[in-house]
Design goal:
By secondary structure, the chain is α/β, with parallel strands linked by helices. It contains 15 helices and 10 strands. The strands form 2 sheets. A 6-stranded mixed sheet has the order 1-2-10-7-8-9, with helices on both faces. Strand 4, helix 6 and strand 5 form a beta-alpha-beta unit.
């Protein structure tokens, strides 16, 4: 039986998730760059979730969900839909428990991410590139297999697990942060971060970096209702998901602020992270630095924690990506 889709996690769930995933997830490092600090005019602690298992923060939430299940639930396996990172994370988490994993993937997903999902042992199921098609395929798989749905971002267990990245970041910085900025797509990392920061650093601000071609979170928070009628148009494939209902409620309750960035600025920020810090991050990760550079005046003199969400890039497309942004 699946947990209620709209259950809102609390900070205690984040703490429980941290203990639950500790035997399986990496405690990723915090990286710093004096050169980038000088460019932005602030002190930035980069949380290196691109060095997490499966190459993204997504492993935290997937691992928490998988290891929260009873033995009877786990025996039936898990199912999800994903354009890449969550699918790979859930496949790996399922492998740590020795259970089956089914991943519904949309047309046009990054080939290297699909290869990673398969390499971790999941069964791929292809569908049209719409949220409706993904959800319909997942529902059919649940019916056929009895597997438990682990939604990429609305599942309370996933949100709590994602919040452990910010929890770890704040502990590594001894609480010396004035702001935390994370990318936002479906809202799992964003809402988990909001929960953790509100509990541990109530005076710190939470900012979200969102691509202009999929800026429904900014629109939703501005209008006070979820905006779901949009067609994403961004290179940030990890941020094309529709903001979830529980995620929206948590973000609205914690008064976060969204900063919208162009793809060209994101690619230049990605180039900067590669060249100055020698860190292979994907475009979705680079949105946080793009936002800091675009809004320097907002962060001047502050101590900022920035979560680099993932590093799963298609290396065959990198040269053309950089060249296109420069053009």
């Amino acid at each position: 039986m699946n947990p209620p889709a709209q259950v809102l996690p609390a900070f205690g769930d984040v703490l429980a998730a941290a203990a639950r995933i500790a035997p399986h997830a990496h405690a990723t490092p915090v990286l710093r760059s004096r050169a980038i600090d000088a460019l932005v005019g602030t002190s930035i602690a980069f949380k290196a979730e691109h060095l997490q298992r499966a190459g993204a923060f997504k492993f935290r939430g997937a691992c928490n969900a998988v290891w929260s299940m009873t033995d009877d639930q786990a025996a039936r396996g898990v199912v999800t839909h994903s354009s890449g990172n969550h699918g790979a994370a859930l496949a790996l988490a399922a492998r740590t428990r020795g259970i089956a994993c089914h991943v519904v993937v949309p047309e046009g997903a990054v080939k290297s991410k699909l290869a990673a999902i398969e390499a971790y042992g999941a069964t791929l199921h292809h569908c049209a590139a719409t949220i409706a098609a993904r959800e319909a395929a997942c529902a059919q798989l649940q019916q056929d297999t009895g597997a438990m749905l682990v939604h990429p971002y609305t599942d309370a267990r996933v949100i709590a697990g994602q919040g452990t990245a910010a929890l770890e970041l704040m502990n590594q910085c001894d609480g010396a942060l004035d702001a935390v900025i994370v990318p936002v797509g479906g809202g799992g990392l964003a809402s988990g971060t909001a929960l953790a920061v509100a509990a541990m650093l109530p005076n710190a601000r939470v900012f979200l970096a969102e691509p202009a071609g999929a800026a429904e979170t900014a629109a939703s928070l501005a209008q006070g209702r979820r905006v779901t009628d949009f067609v994403p148009d961004t290179i940030c494939d990890g941020l094309r998901g529709t903001l979830g209902e529980p995620n929206f409620e948590l973000l609205r309750a914690h008064a976060v602020e969204t900063l919208v960035v162009d793809d060209a600025d994101t690619v230049e920020a990605m180039r900067l992270l590669w060249s100055r810090m020698k860190q292979v991050v994907e475009p979705s990760s680079a949105t946080v630095l793009a936002a800091l550079l675009r809004h320097r005046e907002r962060f001047a003199g502050l101590r900022v924690g920035a979560i680099l969400s993932g590093g799963n890039v298609d290396l065959d497309d990198i040269a053309s990506l950089f060249a296109k942004a420069r053009a």
